[in-house]
Structures are given as structure tokens and as C-alpha cells.
Specification:
The protein has about 425 residues and is an alpha+beta fold. The chain has 12 helices and 11 strands. The longest helix has about 40 residues.
């Protein structure tokens, strides 16, 4: 079994309930497995090969600290999963959870005494690309790209049938095994908090809100139960976890919220990319056959682009976000580290500015608009996204159902982008 089979999956995936669509993106124009990757991991490997970068091995944590440092992934991003749902699941238990660290584009998974680091990254052309790095000392450490086995779970309807990431909530038994009959779900910003994070540790306060984190589930005849009150508002990891075995003693609630938001958005960016490229490829075949003008997009191609672009925009502006019932506070300093990255406009405003009282962000437009994956969108769908965002933030497109998009917020977001986002269409900056 592939070592990255379930990098970000806190649940056992039932393959019978999903559909693998490898044949779609393994064919032109995507050619997923055959196309050379171009992402932070492939670039780091090139630097290692060219001896312009080196990885330092630590006796306790292997290459983890060095990898995080080179990729600028903060230790404060640490979140812990105790469900047995990884390739290295025999090493995972409620007392020895798997740690995940992340930044805007890369996810690193590690297990105590594990043989490898499990890595996933967002590639502008390929979506999620998976790698493994041996934890054994090596004069020439190598990030080895993983393909087909990973995609059995990471390219299904759970990821919009593109290579993607999954954050999942399960009922984890006292030994860490998911109780499958109790069900599980993929979580994101639209998921009510009271059903999030089963199988995860969560440190931080959230008032009267509840979630499924921190506690072990107990199996019943037809289901399973979790004591959500006992797992709420925990400032420290349970005594069952030896925190000295981890880089920090936290599994920060704010990091969890950001992780959920961006994993799904990575998948939507990939979906918009693939759908647009495949639609244009299909049209190019027809254009050659019927000798049509290849510079004019057909109605069917335009419909595909609009559908994918609209889905992306709706998520980017948090149109389906569940509001918080109480203020959220983390424990690790992740919030401060996340906000510090900017960029900021001349008034000091940033799309990374966290709210945490009613919603995740002060300015409801995803910070991933600055990502290489967004910039790498095919021109037709990126143009559609920019036009719709402009219409929304100028009021040209009424949004009566989106009460969080006030005139003041729309104006602020527009100004932030004009000052901080390179490559905006001309009509944004005139």
C-alpha cells in the first residue's frame, strides 16, 4: 500500500462508496502521472540535487525540522490525528497521534517512529501531488513522488474526482480504529462545528460551541457516541499524550479551521483548472474536425467554465460558511504566525486577518487568491473568477443572501486586492 494513501484523512475510506476517476486526468490534456511536477517539493528536490540546499537529520525527529524550516512551515501549525487511518496506522493510537504541519501550499505528515515523512503539495498544473521522504539518514535525501495508490483515496468524489486533500471526522474507538457503522464525513467551512474533528485532538477555547474532538467514541449496537462536553474547551492535550515527542504541545483549533478551509479550496482550484483545460481540449478536437475558429469558445465550453468558476468563487467568498456561536481562541500562536505573513495594504489590512468571533476571517475572500495554484488557473476561468469578484465587490452583482458581504467589507476587499495582488485585470485598477 502506498505510504501517502491517507495523508489528511482522519477516517477509513470505504472505496466501495467512492468512484475513482483516474482515466479522466491521466489522459490529455492533464496527463497527471506523466507530467513533470512543478511545486515547492519538486523545487526543493532540485535545490537538494544542485547542492544549493541541504537537509539536516535530527536523531529524534529525522528530517522533519529541517523540511519545515526550508519550506517555511510554522511549527505552530501542528495538528494531531489519533484515528488509525494512515499507511503507518500500526504506529498511530490515541497516545501516539500522527502530526500534520502545513502552510498555504504544503502538508507534512509524520508518525512517531515512522519510516517516512508523508508529504502532499498543491501543484499549479496537477493539483495535489504526493511524496515520501525516508526518515533514515542519507547523504542524498530524496522526495519520491507517489502516484496511483494514493489516488485510490485522494482522487474520488470526496475530492471532486481530482487529486486532492481530505479532512475527515470519524468516531474513533479507544484503540483509534474508526467505528465505520457510525459514519464519517469530510469537513470544511460549511460543516457545523458540532460534527467536526472526530478522531482529532483540538486545543483551544470556543465557548458554548461543541465538537467531536479530543474524546474517544464508544460503540453502541447501531452507532457510536462521543462526550462532546468532555472534549470542549481544552487548553492542553490529554495526559495520555507525551507532548515531548512532538514539536509543540498543541493541536490548535485555529489551525484546524484554516486547514479545513484551504484543503477544500485547493481541490476546487484543481477542479476549475482541470475542467477548463479538458473542455478546451475537447473543443479543440471539434474545431479541427469542423474547421471552426479556435479562438472562439463554444457555448458548451463556456458553460463548463462558468460552472467551475462560480463554484470556486462561492467558496472563496465564504458564501456557505457556518457562523461561530462563540469566540474562538487557539493555544499555539498559530493565529499570530498566520496573520504575520500578509501581504497588507497601506492601511495595514490583510486577507489573512482573522475574526474568530463570528467568522474565520475579517475580510471574506480567501488568502489563497495569492497562491501559485490560483495564478496558474487557465486564463478563461481565471478571467471569469476575476469578473465575478469585481461584480460582487462593486455591487454590480447583488448578494442579498450574503449578509457578511457588507458594503464596507466589499470596498475594503477591493482596495486590499488592488494594492496587494499582482496581475489584476486592467478594469480593476483603472
Amino acid at each position: 500500500m502506498n505510504i501517502l494513501l491517507k495523508l489528511l484523512i482522519p477516517a477509513a475510506l470505504l472505496l466501495s462508496a467512492t468512484t475513482v476517476a483516474l482515466d479522466v486526468f491521466e489522459e490529455p490534456p492533464i496527463n497527471y502521472s506523466e507530467t513533470k511536477a512543478n511545486n515547492p517539493i519538486s523545487q526543493l528536490q532540485e535545490a537538494l540535487d544542485g547542492k544549493t540546499a541541504t537537509l539536516a537529520h535530527d536523531p529524534e525527529f529525522g528530517y522533519l525540522k529541517s523540511v519545515l524550516d526550508l519550506l517555511q512551515i510554522p511549527e505552530e501549525s501542528q495538528v494531531l490525528v489519533f484515528s488509525k487511518t494512515s499507511f503507518q496506522n500500526r504506529l498511530i493510537a490515541p497516545s501516539t497521534p500522527r502530526a500534520i504541519y502545513f502552510n498555504d501550499n504544503v502538508y507534512i505528515g509524520t508518525v512517531q517512529h515512522g519510516k517516512v515523512l508523508e508529504i502532499s503539495t498543491a501543484d499549479p498544473d496537477l493539483g495535489a501531488v504526493f511524496y515520501a521522504l525516508s526518515q533514515e539518514p542519507n547523504a542524498r535525501p530524496e522526495f519520491v513522488r507517489q502516484r496511483h495508490d494514493c489516488l485510490q483515496c485522494h482522487a474520488t468524489n470526496l475530492t471532486h474526482n481530482v487529486p486532492g486533500h481530505i479532512v475527515r471526522s470519524v468516531f474513533a474507538a479507544p484503540d483509534g480504529q474508526p467505528i465505520l457503522k457510525a459514519g464519517s464525513l469530510v469537513t470544511d467551512q460549511s460543516t457545523p462545528m458540532d460534527i467536526r474533528w472526530g478522531g482529532w485532538y483540538v486545543t483551544g477555547t470556543h465557548g458554548k460551541a461543541r465538537h467531536r474532538g479530543n474524546e474517544l467514541a464508544h460503540e453502541t449496537k447501531n452507532d457510536a457516541v462521543i462526550d462532546s462536553d468532555a472534549g470542549a474547551n481544552q487548553l492542553h492535550l490529554p495526559n495520555r499524550v507525551d507532548t515531548t515527542k512532538y514539536l509543540t504541545p498543541h493541536s490548535d483549533i485555529v489551525a484546524m479551521l484554516v486547514l479545513e478551509h484551504q484543503t477544500r479550496l485547493h481541490n476546487l482550484l484543481t477542479e476549475a483548472n482541470f475542467e477548463t483545460r479538458m473542455a478546451m481540449h475537447r473543443q479543440s478536437v471539434s474545431d479541427r474536425i469542423f474547421e471552426r475558429d479556435p479562438t472562439v469558445l463554444s457555448e458548451s465550453t463556456q458553460r463548463v467554465i462558468k460552472q467551475a468558476g462560480d463554484k470556486l468563487v462561492d467558496y472563496m467568498i465564504f458564501s456557505n460558511e457556518v457562523e461561530f456561536s462563540d469566540t474562538v481562541h487557539g493555544t499555539s500562536g498559530f493565529a499570530e504566525a498566520f496573520e504575520a505573513k500578509g501581504p497588507r495594504d497601506s492601511k495595514g489590512r490583510s486577507l489573512r486577518e482573522l475574526d474568530l468571533e463570528e467568522r474565520l476571517f475579517v475580510y471574506p475572500l480567501s488568502f489563497l487568491i495569492y497562491s501559485p495554484q490560483f495564478d496558474g488557473l487557465p486564463a478563461p476561468v481565471k478571467d471569469h473568477v476575476y469578473q465575478r469578484l469585481w461584480n460582487i465587490f462593486t455591487g454590480a452583482e447583488p448578494t442579498p443572501d450574503l449578509l457578511h458581504l457588507t458594503n464596507a467589507k466589499n470596498h475594503a476587499i477591493r482596495d486590499i486586492l488592488i494594492e496587494t495582488k499582482p496581475g489584476l485585470p486592467d478594469y480593476w485598477v483603472k
